[in-house]
Specification:
The chain is built from nine helices and 20 strands. By secondary structure, the protein is α+β, with helices and mostly antiparallel strands. The chain has two domains: about 220 residues, P-loop containing nucleotide triphosphate hydrolases (Rossmann fold, 3-Layer(aba) Sandwich), CATH 3.40.50; about 120 residues, Nucleic acid-binding proteins (OB fold (Dihydrolipoamide Acetyltransferase, E2P), Beta Barrel), CATH 2.40.50. Helix 3 crosses helix 4. It starts with a strand and ends with a helix.
Amino acid sequence: MSSTLVELEHISKSYGSKLIIDDLSLTIHENEFVTLLGPSGCGKTTTLRIIGGFEMPDSGRVLFEGRDITNTPPNHRNLNTVFQKYALFPNMTIAENIAFGLRISKKSKQYIDDKIKYALKLVNMEDFADRSVDSISGGQQQRVAIARAIVNEPKLLLLDEPLGALDLKLRQEMQYELIRLKNELGITFIYVTHDQEEALTMSDTVVVMNQGYIQQMGTPESIYNEPENAFVAAFIGDSNIIPGFMVQDKLVDILGVRFDCVDSGFGTNTPVDVVIRPEDVILGKPGEGRMDGRVTHIIFKGVHYEMEVMAGGFEWLVQSTVGHPVGEEVSISVDPFNIQIMNKPASEDEEAIKLDE
C-alpha cells in the first residue's frame, strides 16, 4: 500500500442548526483515485471543500503528509481544485488561462512556456493555445480547467462534479481521459459525484456517503457486489431488496421459500434484508426454479431486456439478454453466491439514516 497522503480525523461541520458532517474520519493514499459518492446533501462536497481549505470544520483535523493543515489557507496547500463551473477567464487565451497560476508565482517565461506545452499535450489540445475560451466546447473548457490545475504540479487534485455539465457521450469520454491523466501524472484524485456509473468506472476506492456519514468504503467491485446496508444496495445500481429470515448459516428464507446462500454469522431464524441484483436473477420454465411467477412488464434497453416478474407476492426486477413477453409464466432461480445477506436496521432512526435520500 502506498503511503498516506490525506487524513481526516473526526471531522464535523454544521451550517446553523443543520449537521452536514458528523465525526467523519477518512484516510486517502498517494496515487489513489477516491470518489466521494452520495445523494445531494450527503456532505460529500463539504468534505471536499474542507480538504481544499475552502471551509473550516467545526471540529476535527485535516492532515496532509502527516502535517496538520486544518487552518492553512487553500493557496498554501499542495493541491488544486476543478469545479463544475470551470471559472476560466473569457478575456484570456487558453494558454494565458493555463499560465495564470504560474505567473502569480512569478515563474520564468521559459518555465511557463514549457509548462503550457506540456499541459496542452496532456489534455490533447496542443493546437489550441491561442484560441479564446468562448470558441471551444464545454468538454474542451473542462480540459483547459484540468490543464490549469496540473501545471502547478499539485500532489492532490480535487474535482467537484466536473463532468456534470457535459452530455452523456462527452462525459463518458472524459471519464477515460481522467483515468489516463491520473495514471500518467501520478497525482492523487479526490472526485465528488452523485453519479454511480462515474464512481464505479473511474475509482480505485469509492466512499458512499449519506447524511454526513460514511455508509461504506471499498473497491467498486466490493461496493457493488457486497453492499453493507440497504442504502448502499439501493443507491449503487439496481437491486431487489427483499425481507427474509436467516434459517441458519448458508440457508435463507425468501418470501416463504428456502434458498441456499454463502453467508453465515447471522444467527438462526433472524430477520434480515436480502439483496439480489437484477442481472443475477435466472429465469426458466415453470417448475424449474425455486419459485414460479409471471412477467408483468418488459422494456428493451439495448444490451439487455429489463423485466418485472411477480413471484411470491414480490415484484422482482430482472435483467437478461433473453426477453420473456408480458403474461408468460416463468420460474426464478439465484446462484447462492449472488445472494447478499444484510442485517436489518436496529431501529427506525438507523433506518432513516441509511435509507433517507
